[in-house]
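Troubleshooting: if your tokenizer reports a length mismatch, compare your output against this known-good record of 428 residues.
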Amino acid sequence: MRILIDNGSYEMRNFGDIAMLQVAVSRLREVFPDAELHVFTTQPDRLKMFCPDVIPVPSHITINGRALWCETWQIFGGLHKVIPARFHTDLRLFEQRLRNKYPGLVGTWIRKRFAKRHISTEDMDHFLALVASADILIASGGGYITDTFGRHATYVLSVLALAQAMNKPTYIFGQGLGPLKSAWMQRVCKQTLPHLNCLALREGRANLPILLMLGINKNNCKTLVTGDDAIELAYTKKPEKLGTAIGINLRVASYSDVGEQLLGEVRKVLHKISEKHRAAMVPLPISRHEGDSDIATIAKISDAFDDEYLDTLDTPQKIIENAGRCRIVVTGSYHAGIFGLSQGVSVIGLAKSEYYQAKFNGLADQFKQGVYVLDMTKENFHQELERCMDEAWIAAPKNRMPLLEQSQRQVDLSRKAYRELRNWNKKK
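Known-good structure output:
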């Protein structure tokens, strides 16, 4: 058996995405011990470091092969140049439908068009052959089906749609949806999501209304709200006692809307509360991407960590261990929050963009208590952060057991979603 796994971090530089992938691989091994697990990546060595028993899909297939297949205007050529721009989304969507419904015919047509321009389609052919050879297609957890990461989301959904056209079972696990305001993204989702064998969402507060807005419900798509897959990885490492430190993280990126000014405000409050409670600050870097590195941001928040130490935090397990040392976590990154909450640690989520407000409010809904969401757009934000940190510090012992109970509940629900694979295997 061959299982093809898409994911949210081809470069393997986001420890949240890696943690979700590790859990997905582990659970797939439980269901299909002898299966070949092929994973999309651009960094095969890093993938093998985190998931040693998988087969990396080469970069030229992961990126170039799929891009050639999905490239816009390859079916109708220059037709878009002579029709009004308001019809472009409809035309792109029609191209997408043709790819999904007639992959063989469309593949032949695209090869002819590329041949005229002396462009090799060898990578595309390898990509199509790989999907055709798979028995099951899976997208592991993430928050990438959103306008913010529209290009990546389109590629992931296109692979699933192609597999569906080939009558293969398709699954999405541990996924967060939205915001989805783009007409293009909404319609691509409508083409693919209803045909999944199972859609497992990591939160329901924002995700279920999005599905209703798309006209997708449990009658046309088996949907489960399971929590984040990475919860299990952290929950199994929970310490016996609540920690004494303050976990810190802040995401400075275009999609977080957080800049240097807010960084300075957070730094002042963190140092003040740290001194007040005589609590050490512990770094919880999640992203190591050059454009949104948490390592660089944390170094600006606290002078206590040198580059050599921060560089040693190079696996999800090490970040999880740090989170377990904490009494509270202050974070602008979703998975730094997950790693804390799953070990019974109260979390203050710092959110400015709509994307992160939805993420942290979803966490609050899943864990019920011990999650404090702060809107960074408020003028008195720094005062609210100081108040909230004190409140969370006092309430942390009371919050611990309910958080662990909610973590166990979500682990059970998430495992239930993976049991859907057993149902398919029985039918086969």
